[in-house]
Amino acid sequence: MNTLPNTLLTSMPEPERTARCELAALYRLLAHFRMTDLIDTHISLRLEDGSGHFLINRYGVLFEHMKASDLVRIDGDGNVVDRYFPDHRVNRAGFVIHSAIHAARADLHCVIHTHTAAGIAVSAQAKGLLPISQHALKFYNRLGYHRYEGIALRLDEREQLVRDLGPHSAMILCNHGLLAAGPSAAAAFQTIFILERACQAQIQALAGNSELILPDAETCEFTAQQYEGDDESGLIELGWHAALTLIEPQRQDYCA
């Protein structure tokens, strides 16, 4: 597997080097929690250097093997503008989905897209995510839905993706999977983690073939607002750093 020589890593501007390491760690965390689909699905992170460029995975690398050197810098038109790996291949569908969100939402720096069994299963259900668990209530009236239009290879789908996401930071791609985003890798990780758990809980609850308990609307809204306080209280960063300890032994490898 190609790796970025340490001399090139150290010659990078510190913000990009840090972003590459952070994003590689996020890929490995998703692998740790089994939110992968072989070489498909993607996580992207906007570079905060005013260029409008973002990092995304080199196509063909497993999430559990992702390194800082496997991330590719691309522009809003899908062009590889990475001076270190100009020949790295980027998945077309990954570019279409992620570029749409990055271009439209300056507040969302990190975008995660997954194809988990639970996420796909809920995405195929007519009523979508049900307010039947504490995890699901984070997304009460705060979740977009995007109708399936085939594999996301067409640029003209980007406009509809953005409309369907609306003001939210999470969306169910019907018959497809999940999308979560945030102002940081930590925030996006928390969002996809809770959304995935909510989907898992829903599939298992429905499999029980028993009447479900739904909280009243007032309680649902109150709980969603409680989740919105996580950022101010520092819980998002606390959870992120706790999760990173799970892959700490790999740090020297994923930051290479």
What does this protein structure show overall?
By secondary structure, this protein is α+β, with helices and mostly antiparallel strands. The chain contains eleven helices and seven strands. The protein has helices spanning 6-11, 14-32, 92-104, 117-123, 134-137, 157-165, 185-207, 217-228, 230-233, 235-244, 251-254; strands spanning 42-46, 54-57, 71-74, 110-114, 144-146, 170-173, 177-182. The chain has a seven-stranded mixed β-sheet, sandwiched between helices. Strand 5, helix 6 and strand 6 (170-173) form a beta-alpha-beta unit. Helix 3 crosses helix 6, helix 4 (117-123) packs across helix 7 (185-207) and helix 7 crosses helix 10.
Q: TL;DR?
A:
This protein is α+β, with helices and mostly antiparallel strands.
**Radius of gyration based on Cα positions:** 18 Å
Q: Please state how the strands of the largest beta sheet are arranged side by side.
A: 3-2-1-4-7-6-5
Uncertain runs are: 1-5
Mean pLDDT: 92
Number of helical segments with 4 or more residues: 11
Largest sheet: 7 strands, mixed
Set down the secondary structure blueprint.
Elements: H1 6-11, H2 14-32, E1 42-46, E2 54-57, E3 71-74, H3 92-104, E4 110-114, H4 117-123, H5 134-137, E5 144-146, H6 157-165, E6 170-173, E7 177-182, H7 185-207, H8 217-228, H9 230-233, H10 235-244, H11 251-254
Parallel strand pairs: 5-6
Antiparallel strand pairs: 1-2, 1-4, 2-3, 4-7, 6-7
